[in-house]
Each structure stands twice: as C-alpha cells, then as structure tokens.
C-alpha cells in the first residue's frame, strides 16, 4: 500500500524538520500540516469498516451497480485537522514565552507582552470550526432539515463575530466610486448590518459547497482550489515584504495549510472512482474554514470573488431551493450507459465519413453488399444516442447513420479483422484517448418534471432557456414538460452533452481555477476603478 510506505518514510523526516524549525511558526505549521495530511491518508481507509458498521454509508448513485460507500469521512479529516491546529498552538506562540524568559527586563515593552488578542482570535476560529464539524456530523447522522442547515452555521459563527467585535469592531465600508454621488459619502458605517453580512457569509460558505456536490471528488476538489488560491495570495503578500497586515496573512496560512493537507489526502480516497464519501461534515467544515479566514483575515470581498462559481450555482438553483420549481431529494447528474461518442466526436466523425464517402460513393452505389458490425448498424447506435432525448443530436445521428451505412458498404470489400484484433485495437485507442475501459458510462443532466411549478418558476425557467442555460423538454403540443435540474454540474452537462464522472469533476475544477485567475484580476487590477 503506497500510502503506508510513504507515511513510514516521510513522517520521521517531518518530525525531525518540525523539531529543527520549532521557532519558525510558518515552517512548523508546514511540517505539522504534512503530518496531518499523512495521518488522514492512512486513517481514512482504516475507518471505512467502522463507519459502515455504524450505519454511516451511502450508495454511489452514479455507478451501474451503486456500490455502498462509507459516508461522512470528512469527520476524520476534520478531527485530524483540529488535532494538528491544537498542537500548533505552542509552536505559534513559543517565541513570546521564550523571549520573555530571556529578556525579563524588557517585559514592560509592549512588543514583549504576550499577544492574548491573537491567541483569542485563533482559539475562537478553532471553536467555530469545531462547532461546525460537530453540527455537520449531526446532519450526516440525523439528516437535518434545511432550516437547521441555515441556523446552525449562524450559531457556529458567533465566537468569531464576538472576537471581531471586540478586536476591531470595524463596521465601515468604502463606498464604490459610482455610488458616492448617490450616498453623498466616501465611507458608510453599516453598524449591525455588517455583522448580519458576515454572519450570512458563514451560512453561505457552508451551504454553497454542500449544494455544489454529488459527483466523486467535487466537494473536496473545489475546496482545495479555493484554499490554494488564498494561500498563493498570502504567500505573494508575505514575499512582497510589506509588514502592514502581515499578521492577517500568516493567520490565514496557519489555518489553511493544514486544511489543504488533510483535504488532499481525503481527495485521494474520494476522487473517481470514490472509495469513500466526505459527507456534509466536510462541506460544513470546509465552508466554515473559508468563512473564518475571510472574516478574521479581513478579505471577505476577495473570498466572495473566489466563490463566484458557488454563487452562480446558488443563484441558478434558487428556483428549486425556494420551491418555485419542484426540487427532488437528489439533483446530481444521471448516469447512462451509452455510446462513447461525444457530440464533438460525432460531428468530427460525420466530417470524416462525409469526406471518405464522397470518394467511395461511386463504388458504393454499384455495390450490393450488406453492412456488417456495430459501427455500421444504425439501429444500435440510434438506440444508444436517442436515449438522451437530445433532438439535435438525434437528427445529426440519423444523417451520420445514413452516411455510415454507405461508408460500411464501401469498406465491405476490405478483409475482416478477428475479434481479438478488434478488442486489442479498441483498448489501444482507449488508452490513447486517456479513457478507462469503463468509458461507456457517462453522466448526462438529470431532469425534473415541471408539474406543480409556480408561474414565477416557469417564467425564470423560460428566461434561463432564452439565455441558453436551461434545457427544456416539450411535448408535441409545445407544453413545457421537464427541465434539467438547476445546478452547475447539470448545466455543464447541458452544454457539453455527456461526460464521464471524472471528466465532469475536472471541468468543475477547471472552472474553479479559471475563476481564481479572474478573481485576482478583478481584485488587483480592476478594483482601483471602483475604489480610489
Ligand atoms: C445536496 C444537494 C443534492 C445532491 C446532494 C449530493 C441541493 C439542494 N442538495 O444534498 O441535490 O444530490 O447534495 O451530495 O442541492 N452521492 C453520490 N456520489 C457522490 C456524492 C454523493 O452518489 O459523489 C450521493 C450518495 O448517495 C450520498 C449522498 O449523495 O450518500 C449524500 O447526499 P447528502 O450530502 O446527504 O445530500 P444533501 O447535502 O442534503
Ligand atoms: Mg451534502
């Protein structure tokens, strides 16, 4: 087992490095994070049977045989994270007490007074995170109602809100340039509203990750990308050598380095084909980690920019979440067993076939031989493709089928290959295209019936269709019947037609990475247009 071997070799090394750098909090934090990551990597597979025995399991709905996997494995990662952050407390504050011992005479100087405020901030962050992990686990075990999912993060964010209030109490916001003439002010004090805003941010972050979920790896993957983006921002700031606000960047790093470490280890077990599920515990834990960093690290606006895909997913989902359109218990994409031909491949094949066909047309017309083999059998391909209810693709397929029949006729004179040669060439081409032998299993957008949808819901769905972000199915009379479930995952499938589960996960992560680039562009290149 690779994880055990790597852990055996690298953990003594990390412990030695930790001892060496015990007076350097950032280096110590990196070593502790590495150890936490290794621990998660090793503990998760060991915990599978324990969780299953306790009834914490769920069916992997996007697989043909729907295997039952251990659920809520996020709690293992979160617990190891909390242990790592607790153990980091002495390393973080060591330099103050060792300095105090050495320079008793300097005790009166402010610079040597123990930073209780920083310790308070760090502890309140851990308290909020711990509460959220506990509440997330309760949700996994008890399957709480949605109203509790909104209330619980608000309660868990109280410790950080109090620390924020006592520590800074800054509730002023700089008014964007274009609003200054309306408000006749440069700065506005939001007072209590500011606390409502940051409290809502905690609720949003925790639930936003949870509703952009449902395929292997996506909850953890998006969290890793967001966390790495924030880490990159903090490191860039620290390297720039600007001492102003360096503490806040370090504070964020101390929370995010162990988070990334445990998340990467969890991702290893949760990515396609998943061996475990992370559960709501991980989604809440992850969302709260970002909220805590954004609030106490003073970068809530940048954090919201990094959450644009989640914000889009929430706004797009709103008609279902707020009951304007029926919302099934699960909105994750639907698994289909189908042709490995994607819409793009079909279009490319059509071009190739047309080109070859035009050359072979004269031969074919004089040839009375029958078409043989799967690829040349229009009815088989037709069954596979029409199962998607995609009218355009079906029409395209019909024309391809006709072309393929003539193409097969033209090829009929060529010597036939044996079955084993065919199998070999298929697996070679699969390897060449990077697909697995399970490449016939795809995800398509899942749909929901619009029976019982409210008039406002139907209006929004039509608007979505108008701007090309919804796939509506109509009956023969043109009445609206169904729509794709309103999630970003399904929307990507509406636009890309069909993808394997791992391709879909990779697309979502790519969107998240591109969004981070966009977020930093807005933050560091465009913000001066709004605030100068
Ligand atoms: C949220 C979504 C729901 C989505 C679900 C998937 C909303 C309002 N709710 O609900 O639409 O279906 O997350 O997590 O958007 N599962 C898989 N494969 C995966 C991950 C999960 O099949 O890769 C299934 C498993 O059966 C697992 C279950 O989803 O047991 C977990 O669902 P849960 O987290 O309880 O759903 P919610 O968070 O309530
Ligand atoms: Mg969930």
Automatic annotation (TrEMBL):
Keywords: Endoplasmic reticulum, Glycosyltransferase, Magnesium, Membrane, Metal-binding, Transferase, Transmembrane, Transmembrane helix
Region (Disordered): 354-381, 408-436
GO process annotations (BP): dolichol-linked oligosaccharide biosynthetic process
Record InterPro entries: Glycosyl_transferase_4 (IPR000715), GPT (IPR033895)
Organism: Coemansia spiralis
Regions of compositional bias (Low complexity) in chain numbering: 356-376, 418-436
A single GO molecular function term of this UniProt record: glycosyltransferase activity
Topological type in the membrane: Multi-pass membrane protein
Cellular component annotations (GO), alphabetically ordered: endoplasmic reticulum membrane
Protein name as it appears in the record: UDP-N-acetylglucosamine--dolichyl-phosphate N-acetylglucosaminephosphotransferase
Gene name in the database record: ALG7
């Amino acid at each position: 087992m690779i994880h055990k071997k790597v852990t055996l070799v690298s953990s003594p090394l990390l412990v030695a490095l930790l001892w060496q750098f015990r007076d350097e909090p950032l280096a110590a934090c990196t070593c502790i994070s590495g150890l936490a990551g290794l621990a998660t990597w090793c503990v998760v597979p060991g915990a599978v049977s324990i969780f299953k025995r306790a009834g914490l399991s769920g069916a992997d709905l996007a697989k043909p045989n729907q295997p039952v996997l251990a659920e809520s494995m996020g709690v293992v990662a979160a617990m190891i994270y909390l242990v790592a952050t607790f153990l980091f407390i002495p390393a973080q504050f060591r330099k103050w007490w060792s300095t105090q011992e050495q320079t008793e005479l300097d005790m009166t100087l402010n610079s040597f007074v123990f930073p209780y405020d920083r310790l308070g901030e760090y502890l309140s962050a851990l308290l909020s995170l711990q509460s959220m992990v506990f509440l997330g686990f309760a949700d996994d075990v008890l399957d709480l109602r949605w109203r509790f999912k909104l209330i619980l993060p608000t309660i868990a964010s109280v410790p950080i809100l109090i620390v924020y209030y006592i520590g800074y109490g800054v509730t002023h916001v700089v008014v964007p340039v274009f609003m200054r003439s309306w408000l006749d002010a440069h700065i506005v004090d939001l007072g209590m509203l500011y606390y409502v805003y940051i409290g809502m941010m905690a609720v949003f972050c925790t639930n936003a990750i949870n509703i952009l979920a449902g395929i292997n790896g996506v909850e953890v993957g998006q969290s890793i990308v967001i966390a790495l983006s924030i880490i990159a921002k903090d490191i860039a700031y620290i390297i720039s050598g600007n001492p102003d606000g360096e503490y806040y960047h370090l504070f964020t790093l101390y929370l995010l380095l162990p988070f990334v470490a445990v998340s990467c280890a969890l991702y290893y077990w949760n990515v396609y084909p998943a061996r475990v599920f992370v559960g709501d515990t991980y989604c809440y834990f992850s969302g709260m980690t970002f909220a805590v960093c954004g609030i106490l690290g003073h970068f809530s606006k940048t954090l919201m920019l990094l959450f644009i895909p989640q914000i889009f997913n929430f706004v797009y989902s709103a008609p279902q979440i707020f009951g304007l359109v029926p919302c099934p218990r699960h909105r994750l994409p639907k698994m289909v067993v189908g042709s490995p031909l994607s819409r793009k491949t079909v279009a490319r094949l059509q071009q190739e076939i047309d080109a070859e066909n035009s050359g072979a047309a004269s031969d074919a017309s004089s040839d009375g031989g029958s078409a043989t083999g799967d690829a040349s059998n229009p009815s088989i391909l037709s069954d596979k493709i029409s199962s998607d209810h995609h009218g355009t693709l079906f029409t395209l397929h019909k024309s391809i089928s006709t072309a393929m029949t003539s193409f097969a006729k033209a090829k009929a004179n060529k010597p036939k290959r044996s079955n084993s040669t065919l199998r070999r060439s298929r697996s070679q081409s699969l390897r060449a295209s990077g697909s697995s032998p399970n490449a016939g299993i795809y995800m398509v957008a899942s749909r929901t019936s619009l029976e019982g949808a409210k008039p406002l819901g139907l209006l929004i769905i039509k608007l979505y269709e108008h701007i090309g972000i919804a796939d509506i199915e109509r009956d023969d009379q043109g009445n609206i019947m169904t729509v794709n479930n309103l999630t970003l995952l399904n929307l990507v499938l509406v636009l890309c037609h069909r993808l394997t589960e791992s391709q879909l996960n990779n697309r979502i992560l790519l969107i998240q990475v591109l969004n981070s680039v966009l977020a930093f562009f807005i933050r560091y290149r465009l913000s001066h247009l709004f605030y100068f």
